[in-house]
Amino acid sequence: MNIGVLGGGQLARMMAQAGSSLGLNFMFLCPDSDACAAPYGEHLCAPYEDKHAQEHLAKWADVVTYEFENIPLSLVELLQQQIPLHPASSVLSLARDRLPEKLLFRTLGIPTAKFAPVDSLEMLINTLEDIALPAILKTRTQGYDGKGQALLRKESDLSAIWGEIGKVPCIVESMVEFRRELSIIAARNQKGDMVFYPVSENHHRDGILRLSISRQDDPMQVRAEAKIRSIMDNLSYVGVMTLELFQVGDQLFANELAPRVHNSGHWTIEAAETSQFENHLRAICGFPLGRTSSKQTTAMVNLIGSLPVEAEIRNIPDTSLHFYGKLKRPGRKVGHVTLTQSDGSPDEFNQRLAALLQLAGEAELSSKTFLNPTPLTQCS
pLDDT, tens digit, for every residue of 139-195? Predict the structure, then answer.
């Protein structure tokens, strides 16, 4: 079976790696000449708008998917008229714009931070009469890894920040005092069957995910599953979806959704019976979904900007390295390392994770204890 992928980055790369055991072939439409997925299939190195490349992909592929949201919506809509494409263009249209995304959460009764659309400086000033400072201003589109966001602290800064963010349509959100950042990943096939992964507890710095820890039997698992199920069923979704959440007291507030495989689920490659990448392919190809259970706590550490010395990482027991073959650049995800708890005590796991975080340049996180934290209160 031939799988067309819009994009050629690390998510497409890991998708293709997972697809090898399923006997799948891959073609990547990506304008980057150094696309790191290229060694795992045929690379159509052309702009997304290139008509010849679009036609070639549509004729070759049995089904098309995408690895990120910031591809031209018009391309997805065009391909969907010619060939099966999952997730649907309507999903991409919603997920790439923060306003309809938030409105969907509201329609489904899923709590969020207080928000409002702003299209001008005047609207921003008026909106802040209701949404008190400090608040967060976010562009409605083209936002990822902390881009397109600004913290609003003082009224005197509003004009300058509105200019810096580009004077484009935005939403403004109230600040949320959350206990934890979580994400839930699920897969849904064309029949409506669904599987869920254990929630991940996530830690960010400068808007970029630095660490994810899988949390088996988390007290928020059932609530997280209910929220993502309602979204996926509402959208008749096919594929893997990720829902990012804030735990506020004993509630879960939705932050945003990702219509694709997600960075916080990379640990599933080593620790789940079926990885998120394989289950995405199974869902869009019409194959039975794989089991998602995991019997061990696992941590995933992102490598941002540059790579540590490989030998130093391999000296840490139970680590699995994933280098993406991407050029080093500040703020760029160039790899990740997974740490599994195959044996040893929680203290040993924490020590290994601290050493790994130090090598990844995350000194502040390395001082924390992540395994066997203060027991969480069970929520009914």
Answer: 998 776 667 889 999 888 899 999 999 999 999 999 989 999 999 999 999 999 999
CA geometry: angle 205, 154, 169, nearest 5 deg: 70
DSSP for 93-121, please give it. HHHT-HHHHHHHHHHTT-----EEEE-SH
Tokens of 228: 């993502």
The CATH number given to 2-85 is 3.40.50.20
The predicted structure's pLDDT at residue 375: 40
Whether the bond between 100 and the residue before it is cis, its omega within 30 degrees of 0, is no
Measured at the CA of 103, the angle between CA 252 and CA 246, to 5 degrees, comes to 20
Classified by CATH at the fold level, domain 180-366 comes out as: D-amino Acid Aminotransferase; Chain A, domain 1 (3.30.470)
Q: How many CB atoms lie within 10 A of CB 27?
A: 20
Let me know: does 186 contact 224? Beta carbons within 8 Å: no
CA 344 to chain centre: 30
Letter string b/e over residues 89-117, b meaning 16 or more CB atoms within 10 A of that residue's CB: bebbebbbbbbebbebbeeeebebbebbe
Q: Is the pTM of this model over 0.85?
A: yes
| Coil, strand or helix at 56 | helix
| Cα(200)–Cα(182) distance, integer angstroms | 5
**2-85 with 114-174: one CATH topology?**
no
Which DSSP letter does residue 85 get?
A: B
Which CATH architecture describes the domain 114-174?
2-Layer Sandwich (3.30)
Q: What's the pLDDT at 378?
A: 37
Report the chain's mean pLDDT, rounded to a whole number: 93
Residue-wise pLDDT tens digits, 111-141: 999 999 999 999 999 999 889 899 999 999 8
Which of left, alpha, beta for 171 (phi over 0: left; psi -120 to 50: alpha)?
beta
Tell me the domain boundaries of the chain: 2-85, 114-174, 180-366
Quote the CA–CA distance of 357 and 377 in Å, as a whole number.
28
Give the 3-state secondary structure of 309-372: CHHHHHCCCCEEEEECCCCCCCCCEEEEEEEECCCCCHHHHHHHHHHHHHHCCCHHHHCCCCCC
- Terminus-to-terminus CA distance in the chain, angstroms? 44
